[in-house]
Amino acid sequence: MPDLEAILLVGGQGTRLRPLTLGTPKPLLPTAGVPFLAHQLARARSFGVRKIVFATSYKASMFEPVFGDGSAFGLSLDYITEETPLGTGGAIRNAAEALTSGPDDPVLILNGDILSGHDIGDQVRTHMSRSAAVTLHLTEVDDPTRFGCVPTDDDGRVTAFLEKTPNPVTNRINAGCYVFTRSVIDRIPRNEVVSVERETFPGLIDSGELVLGYADRTYWLDVGTPAAFVQGSRDLVLGRLGSPALPGATGEHLALEGAVVSAEAKVGGGTAVGARAVVEAGATVVGSVLSDECVVEAGASVTDSVIGKGARVCAGSVVRDAVIGDGAVVGPGNELQGGVRIWPGIELPERAVRYSSDV
């Protein structure tokens, strides 16, 4: 297989992950100890990708200082910014200006909010062997009603793109990783808002061109919500999905440089402990993301949650299924749960929020 080029779509605002994304684009959020995209870049490199073009929009200037020219990953990186959002198709067409591939070459398209364990190399080989216009990674899910579904015929040809429906015809959904033949990208109109899902793919199907489905049931996760983001980090730390970018061994928890975890604290369930973060004696942290320089005080409990950079969970507080923004302070004796989100810099007084009826 020739050296492969890829486009990485990272323009979204990550609104479902606020307040985490108010200051940081979703693809740069720390996930199992490194920016989320580090896992995607390392996996792409392992499958023969050598050049990646970032299609950026929201907080575009923040990407290059993190990843530079890509040499640390063995990659060549380019950054293309949309001044106004152009949709998935417009973003792909815009970023393709930086590609060097010929019209018949495959181009890999990756979404900046997906964790996937599928065999990218096999997807590309399938695309090339069938001379497809586009080959879509499809994943099988238990509940396809939450997604658009993608039926295929016996030869793997995609027959339709169906919007969310209470009665899906298949449990296969669009998993967000595509292989395009370069000349097909070049036919997308320039500088126009275009959706590949609603316009490009249905248009190719209608005109009789070969749109293939590459279906499997390996690990797949859209990390667009706080609960899914926490799950993705947890699964990487526990080794449920392998990643060449993981900055340490897999296990019950991963602690970055300068983190201080008391021997009398219980930290597990795939928790990532950020650089210079502190977990004091008697604290319990399970399956959570602790950002750099945050503090979990003695006797506090944090489960399935994200604690922002420099935030503090004070003694005796319980935080479950919650997001605590950067620099926020959860005063002693609070109980936060059920998807609550505390905005950056907010300070909750002692016992300000309770679910229990005790005094």
Q: Report on the biggest sheet.
A: 7 strands, mixed
Helix content: 10-25%
| Average pLDDT level | 91
Shape assignment: elongated
Helix count equals: 7
Question: Strand fraction band?
Answer: 25-35%
Total beta-strand segments: 28
C-alpha end-to-end distance: 67 Å
Order of neighbouring strands in the sheet with most strands = 5-4-1-6-9-8-10
- Structural class category: alpha/beta
Q: Topology, pairings included?
A:
Elements: E1 4-10, E2 30-31, E3 34-35, H1 36-46, E4 49-56, H2 63-67, E5 76-81, H3 87-95, E6 106-111, E7 114-116, H4 120-130, E8 134-140, E9 172-181, H5 182-185, H6 196-206, E10 211-216, E11 220-222, H7 226-238, E12 253-255, E13 260-261, E14 266-268, E15 271-273, E16 278-279, E17 284-286, E18 289-290, E19 295-296, E20 301-303, E21 306-307, E22 312-313, E23 318-320, E24 323-324, E25 329-330, E26 335-336, E27 341-342, E28 347-348
Parallel strand pairs: 1-4, 1-6, 4-5, 8-10, 12-15, 13-16, 14-17, 15-18, 16-19, 17-20, 18-21, 19-22, 20-23, 21-24, 22-25, 23-26, 24-27, 25-28
Antiparallel strand pairs: 2-3, 6-9, 7-11, 8-9
